[in-house]
Write a structure and sequence with these properties.
With 94 residues, the protein is of the alpha+beta class. Helices cover 40% and strands 24% of the residues. A four-stranded antiparallel β-sheet has the order 2-3-1-4, with helices on one face. A hairpin with a 4-residue loop joins strand 2 and strand 3. The radius of gyration is 16 Å and the shape is globular. The structure holds copper (II) ion.
Length: 94
C-alpha cells in the first residue's frame, strides 16, 4: 500500500515538474484563423519561443482551435499568437 502510493506520487511529480515554474498552469483555448499546417506550425513556433512545451499545445486545424496549457496569462498568450499575423480570438479557459 505505502509503496504504491509512493510510486504514484513520484509519477505525478515527474509529469508536473518538467517546467519548474511556480505559477499554476491553466488551460486556455484560442481561435486562430488557421488554414494549413504552416499556420499551426507557426503557432507552435511562437508559443515555443515563449517557453511553452510542445506537449502542452493541442491544435485542431479543422475547428481552428488551439489549446494551450501554460502559466502565462491569457493576454500574453494572445499577444504571442498574434505574432503569426493571423486573426486570434481568446475563447476562454477550461
Ligand atoms: Cu497556413
Amino acid at each position: 500500500m505505502t509503496l504504491k502510493r509512493l510510486f504514484d506520487t513520484d509519477t505525478n511529480t515527474h509529469q508536473q515538474g518538467r517546467k519548474s515554474k511556480k505559477m499554476a498552469e491553466q488551460t486556455h483555448i484560442f481561435y486562430m484563423d488557421m488554414t494549413c499546417e504552416g499556420c499551426s506550425n507557426a503557432a507552435k513556433r511562437v508559443l515555443g519561443k515563449l517557453g511553452v512545451d510542445e506537449g502542452n499545445i493541442t491544435i485542431d486545424l479543422e475547428k481552428k482551435l488551439i489549446t494551450v496549457k501554460s502559466s502565462e496569462s491569457a493576454d500574453k498568450l494572445t499577444e504571442t499568437l498574434k505574432k503569426t499575423g493571423k486573426e486570434i480570438r481568446y475563447e476562454g479557459t477550461n
